[in-house]
């Protein structure tokens, strides 16, 4: 069953859209997946472009798909507090509406591209709530070099077309006019700063071998070899597109279900 609607968010101070896939069988408590869209997506992207409605039949889980625009799931400098919404308000809301398990091992964050970054950020900052991360072709694993490049050579972005201009504006919304680096937004730094006494999430990352983001995903995978996290990286033939995202979603759900 698919539910579509909107509600007035206290964290965002506006009405926002949301879609959910609900199991047709069982009474719960259900496992829950917060399934996050990418930069060009919205709350309906996963249902529109993947086989989610087919895959979901294999799992006794509620799939929650929020709308966050081009926010990178951050508390924006100039804009809404999307991380607060995703990490606090949304889980509280879904817990009230559905019979969802409160166990962290039954709670997952998954997403593609920008949503992969959002899923990693959620489990690293809120590990007491989220026990599993499935990051599909995650973007912006290393924010610092991008911000450095924007500050040092803004003309490159300003002359590189509409998409580049929009990304430039997205980063200013997140970091402010000065594009000052924020350590707390950087995934590798979240890993380094992770408190030893907190429960560690299980992390599964996938990327296509023809994906433009492969290099930084390989770099991150190498870094994670020396971390205490239960981290798995897999890649296979594919690009940064829905052919790959769909196959990766299937594998991610299978990995989570083991």
Describe the structure in your own words.
The structure is a single chain. The protein is α/β, with parallel strands linked by helices. The protein has two domains: 2-140 and 186-257, Alpha/Beta hydrolase fold, catalytic domain (Rossmann fold, 3-Layer(aba) Sandwich), CATH 3.40.50.1820; 143-182, no CATH class. It has helices at 45-49, 52-55, 82-97, 114-125, 143-152, 154-158, 162-175, 187-192, 214-224, 242-257, and strands at 2-9, 14-21, 31-36, 61-66, 107-112, 132-136, 202-208, 230-236. It has an eight-stranded mixed sheet, sandwiched between helices. The longest helix is centred in the middle third of the chain and has 16 residues, at 82-97.
What oligomeric state do the depicted chains represent?
Answer: single chain
CATH level 3 topology of the largest domain: Rossmann fold
Number of strands: 8
As residue ranges, the low-confidence spans are none
Helix fraction bin: 25-40%
CATH architectural group of the largest domain: 3-Layer(aba) Sandwich
Overall morphology: globular
Secondary-structure element string: EEEHHEHEHEHHHHEHEH
Q: What's the domain count?
A: 2
Distance from N terminus to C terminus (CA atoms, Å) equals 24 Å
Strand order of the largest sheet: 1-2-4-3-5-6-7-8
Total helical elements: 10
Radius of gyration: 18 Å
* Proportion of residues in β-strands: 15-25%
CATH class of the largest domain: Alpha Beta
CATH superfamily of the largest domain: Alpha/Beta hydrolase fold, catalytic domain
How would you characterize the largest beta sheet?
A: 8 strands, mixed
Average pLDDT taken over every residue: 94
Query: How does the helix and strand content classify structurally?
Result: alpha/beta
């Amino acid at each position: 069953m698919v539910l579509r609607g909107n509600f007035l968010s206290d964290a965002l101070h506006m009405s926002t859209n949301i879609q959910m896939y609900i199991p047709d069988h069982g009474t719960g408590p259900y496992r829950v997946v917060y399934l996050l869209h990418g930069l060009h997506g919205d709350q309906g992207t996963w249902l529109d472009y993947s086989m989610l409605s087919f895959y979901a039949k294999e799992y006794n889980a509620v799939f929650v798909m929020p709308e966050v625009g081009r926010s990178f799931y951050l508390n924006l400098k100039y804009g809404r507090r999307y991380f607060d919404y995703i990490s606090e308000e949304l889980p509280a809301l879904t817990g009230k509406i559905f019979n969802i398990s409160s166990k962290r091992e039954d709670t997952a964050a998954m997403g593609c591209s920008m949503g992969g970054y959002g899923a990693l950020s959620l489990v690293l900052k809120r590990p007491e709530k989220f026990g599993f991360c499935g990051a599909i072709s995650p973007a912006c694993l290393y924010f610092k070099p991008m911000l450095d490049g924007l500050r040092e050579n803004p003309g490159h972005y300003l002359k590189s077309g509409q998409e580049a201009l929009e990304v430039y504006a997205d980063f200013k919304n997140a970091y402010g006019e000065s594009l000052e680096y924020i350590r707390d937004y950087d995934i590798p730094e979240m890993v380094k700063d992770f408190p030893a006494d907190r429960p560690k999430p299980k992390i599964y990352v996938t990327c296509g071998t023809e994906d433009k983001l492969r290099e930084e995903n390989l770099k991150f995978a190498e870094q994670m070899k020396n971390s205490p996290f239960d981290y798995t990286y897999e890649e296979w033939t594919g690009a940064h597109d829905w052919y790959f995202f769909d196959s990766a979603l299937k594998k991610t759900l299978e990995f989570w279900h083991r």
